[in-house]
Every structure is written in C-alpha cells, then in structure tokens.
Amino acid sequence: MNKRVVITGLGVAAPNGVGIPGFESAIKEGSSGITFHEKLKELKFSCQIGGKPQISEEKIKEYFTPLQLRGLNSSGLIYGVIAGSDAWKDAGLEFSGEEEPDWDSGIIFGTGILGVEKFRESIHLIDEGKTRRLGSTSVIQTMASGISAYLGGILGCGNQVTTNSSACTTGTEALLQGFERIQTGKAKRMLVGSCGDDGPYVWGGFDAMRILPGKYNDDPEKASRPMSATAAGFVPGSGAGALVLEELDSALERGAEIYAEVLGGEVNSGGQRGGGSMTAANNKAVQRCIKAAIKNANIQASEIDTVNGHLTATGGDVAEISNWKDALQSGKENFPYINSLKSMTGHCLSASGSIECVASVLEIKHNFIFGNVNCEDPHPEILELINAERIPQQTLEQPVQILAKASFGFGDVNAVIIFKKY
Predict the structure, then answer these.
(1) Does pTM top 0.85 for this prediction?
(2) Does the keyword Cytoplasm apply (predicted)?
C-alpha cells in the first residue's frame, strides 16, 4: 500500500525574498525582485535586468564553515545550501550526528548549471599555469551534484543523495522523484528542490536568442508580464527553493507542522515531435502530462481550484492556457484561478519549479492566491479561452483546496504535480 506524503518544511532564496516570512510577504504584496544590473549594460546585453536573491556576506557565513568559505564562488550553490538548510530546520529536524548518518532521510536537489563563475575563475588560473591556486573546493563547486553533496554532508543524510537536471522542469521533477521514493517506502523523508546560478555567463545565451525583453531596462519591475498582451519575453532569474517531504505517519508521530499533502503527478516528454522542439512544447504531450497527473493523484479535474502555471511571458503563454483548458475540459467560467510567480521573480530557470512549488504550498497553507503582477492587459487570445476574473491581478484571500503546479522545459520536457490542503 502506497504511503501518504506530506510537506513539513520549506526554504527559499528567491529574487523577491530570502527566507519564508519575507518571501510570503512579497508574493502577497506583489513585490518584485527584478532589478537593473550595471554589469549587463557594460557587456552590451539587450536585456540588462534580472532576478537575483539579495544575500549579505554575513548571512552566507551562517551556512558555511570557514574552510568552505575559502574560494567560495558559486551563487547557485549558496542559494541551494541556504534554502535546503532552512527547509530542514523549518521541518523541526536535526542535523545528523558525527558518527551515524540518518539512514531514513535523503536528498534530490537539482540544478541546470552550477559554479559558472568558479569555472571562469578556474579557466583563467589554468591558462596562466597556476593550477595549484585552484583550491580544494573547485571541483565540488563546479560539479552538478555539488549541491546535493554539500547538503548531504551538512545534514548527514544516509538515504539516496543525488542531483537531477531537466532544464526548467528540474525543481518540480525533483519533488516528484522524492515523493515516489517515500510513497514506495524507500525513505521516510526527502529534502527536494533545485537551484541555479545567475549573471551574464548564464543569461548571455538567452539574450543572444532574443527571447529576453530589451525595452524595460529603465523600469525592471514592469518587465516580466506573463499572460499579458504586452509581454515581450522572459526576464532571467536565479535562486533556490527547497521542501521537506515526509511520510505522513512519520510526520504525525513527531508532531510536525504539515503544510500540504502531495497527491501525485507526472513527468513526460513530447519527443520534440508533433510541433515540439528543443524550445517549444508538444501540446499533446503537455495535455497528456496534465491528465496523467490528475489520474495519478486520484482526483477529478473539476476539483482543481488553482493552477500555478509555467507561464513565462512569451508566445507560449496562450498555448499553455489552451492546453490546460483542453486537459481540464473546463469552460471559460469554471476554469481554475491561474497565476504565475515569474511576474515577480523572473524566470529562475532550473530553480523556477522549486521556488514556485514553495509559493504554491504557501498559498494552500495560508489561504490565498497571489496576484498576477503586470497583467492589467490580459492577452486577447487568452480571454477568448477563459474569463479575466480567473487571472487575478491582486492577491485573493480565500481557501485553496487542490492546486496543480506545472513546469515545462527546454528539450520538450514536462512535469505536473498536484498538492492538496491537509
């Protein structure tokens, strides 16, 4: 018999809030974390804005030892360690002792690319014949699994400790993988999440593709406009989100606070066929993913009252709404409320799914639906599909019973997860 899985801890390092209290306030208030970056202007980027978590050196010292701090130059790693450690503490869990790991706890923490600045620093030293100056942490800061390795050592987890990577679906996929491990009895709890680096060496490729907005450099907070008729491309972002998943019996036994229940989900791919490509989704695959997630969660489509979409402020937004409508078989009036966190954070790439899952769980726990900032002019093709009132511009204070969260990524890959109020 499958185990029930609940969420007992949250952590976040987002452009508009580091730590759960600040982040929750920001999404309720519609506060943006998108800012102008002088460095991008110097490098002649078309898009000179982005979302980057604001973390002081003093704050970083709270999470890393003096040895780890020596030569530390990986923004994604920093964000992931902060979010993951905070989630573990939020769940009321202790770090394992020195002699014995916690065999029942594991980690699946993803990333798209890690340690870009460290790579750049290392390449210069090697080219100059100064290899010995690389330091002892250069490898762990630049290997993709460095984030799960760091967190595994800090927390002392003895179950599966690994890193996944599936472009923008990474965080949502990690959550589903952790859910399945607990559901099948292979672990009692899993720390899941994802992180991503920031800066010109991560964002440059997207600027070269001309899919970032170039006309909002003087007004960064207005730039990210999911579902808007004036959307001009996605704003790049970064950060990390983390969640502690736990077997329900274990959570009840230790009296843990429960944020929400995970009912199930689905991952699939469109195979870059039937209209799908490296950068575009196969609409049939997206609809299949949504329908399978609903079936796996053992609910009816009509029970979903809120959707937290992928919705990046690109031409794909209309297609995504159409896919949801077809998969849910809903009318214009009874379509669920839908929102996109990217209006406040930008598109945090590999970190987006986990940060947005944290936001979704907060909505369920605290009975609100955050508003869609910068969507005062919904796209007319979207309004042909659903009523404008289903796209709230201001935060709605009301219960959320069942929420569907989706992430779609480069390579034509999809992930949908279903959360329920516990």
Answers:
(1) yes
(2) yes
Given this model, what pLDDT does residue 67 score? 86
The set of residues, in sequence order, having a beta carbon less than 8 Å from that of 48 and lying 6+ positions away, is 36, 37, 40, 41, 217
How does pLDDT run across 343-395, given as a tens digit for each residue? 999 999 999 999 999 999 999 999 999 999 999 999 999 999 999 999 999 99
H-helix or E-strand spanning residue 261 = strand 260-269
Q: What per-residue confidence (pLDDT) applies to 64?
A: 94
Length of the chain as a residue count: 422
Burial class (CB in 10 A: 0-12, 13-18, 19+), 184: exposed
Do residues 117 and 73 lie in contact, with contact meaning Cβ atoms separated by under 8 Å? yes
Structure tokens at 307: 């959707």
Residue 185: other Cβ atoms inside 10 A: 11
Domains of the chain, start order: 5-260 (3.40.47.10), 265-420 (3.40.47.10)
Strands (E), 1-114: 5-14, 17-18, 34-36, 49-51, 105-111
Q: Which residue's structure tokens are 């998943």? A: 245
Q: What is the DSSP letter of 271?
A: T
Q: How far apart are CA 367 and CA 196, in angstroms?
A: 29
Kindly state the DSSP code that residue 91 receives in the 8-state scheme. T
User: If we measure between CA atoms, which residue out of 341, 322, 421 comes closest to residue 171?
Assistant: 341
Residue 220 CA to residue 82 CA, distance in Å, equals 26
List, in sequence order, every beta strand (DSSP E) within 172-296.
Answer: 189-196, 239-247, 260-269
Which has the closest alpha carbon to 150: 73, 78, 233, 89?
78
Longest CA–CA separation in the chain, Å: 66
CB burial of 313-340 (b: ≥16 within 10 Å; e: otherwise) equals bbebbbbbbbbbbbbbebeeeebbbbbb
Residue pair 165/110 in contact by the 8 Å Cβ criterion:
yes
Give residue 70's pLDDT.
87
With the CA atoms of 339, 258, 149 and 206 taken in that order, what torsion angle do they form, in degrees rounded to the nearest 10? 0
Predicted confidence (pLDDT) per residue in 122-135, tens digit: 888 899 999 988 88
Distance CA 60, CA 78 (A): 7
